[in-house]
Amino acid sequence: MEKLPLAIVGCGGMGGRHLLGLKELYDSGMANVELVAVCDPRLDNADHLADEAAGLLGARPGVYADMETMVRQRPEVQAVAITTDARAHHAVATTAFDLGLHVLCEKPMALTMRGANLMLAAQQRAGKVLSVAENYRRDPMSRVTRALIDAAVIGTPFLFLDISASSGNRIVITPWRHQKNCGGMLLDGGVHNADMMLYYLGDVRQVFSEIRLWETTREQARSGGVSGFYARWAGEMPATIAATAEDTMVAVVSFASGVMGQWTQSYAGHGQGFGRRQLFGRRGALTPGGTRNGASPVIHLDDRKQLTGDGLLEHVPDFCLDRVTARLFGGERLAAYTLPFPDADRKLLAIQLYELADCVFNGRTPEVDGRLGRRAMALCYAGFESSVLNRPVTLDEIENETTGLYEADINAELGI
Question: Considering the entire predicted model, what is its pTM?
């Protein structure tokens, strides 16, 4: 099988997760990518990831502090997986395109809409592939949920609720996720929710919202609060940080189809955490399947009949996972699965990496290309901007930068 020579750019926790995705793809027998280099200005991080790669993949990739040197010394590199923090995405991607490379970029696509627009302009100049790593929609449970919606098992949708609150005053994963100029949790986590709304229900017209910063001081969790992906950097975690990014949003979302949405997302919820997504149609209600936990969708119909697990599949007789997902998750028609989070996570990353190479080799457009990645960002930023302006804000206004007060200070600090 032809293989795309790939480099991971950004060798922190997310870079390690992509490496595990590569290992999963290698082990599947369907690997169409080959890791040949890793790149990070912190050479200790790059060396660590290269050592991990040697053990997992059987060959140690080249180690570089910058992409220009990497491409000069390893001209076979054709693509990069960008796994830096969001603050660097637009600059790294633009450099990659100018160097003639294809790009898989972690979400959110950029830190601001202006950054996203600069990335799209660079991609257009280069004529290369840009894929945005939105992995939730690739989960088999998301795929079967979408099939159930398309089959109108609950009738025509009219109301969608996405409500969650958790985390209290704890630092969530890493400190930068609580800094507005680095990408707060309402963007870093919220863009997943935004992408899933677009995936399940189509385009969004406008958002009317309020955002708040409730927890101005965040503390390290007693357990350290750092998962296995990020444990190497636990010693660099401060005991407390001053938070500058809003942690709570309450929004009314108006879909182009006429569906009404209510999106509440808070990373300041103390005590018992809460999370629920529910779609109501004219015949019943659908609780979407889980992501990275294998939980089956659940349907409650007006006749009090409940459908879940394999009982759902008779309502979507044509539903079938693509061959890569089916190989990785163990079946073509899944309504549930049992895997630990890390296992599911790396399988979804493997799917994204496979798709990148497939698009390069076969001239296809990625499922989440730059325009769709930007649209998910615009859904988040419409919520932020609406709170500043105290009026509904359309996604088109955000994408074309007709309004951008919320991100103005971030752009100024980034120099864009």
Answer: 0.96
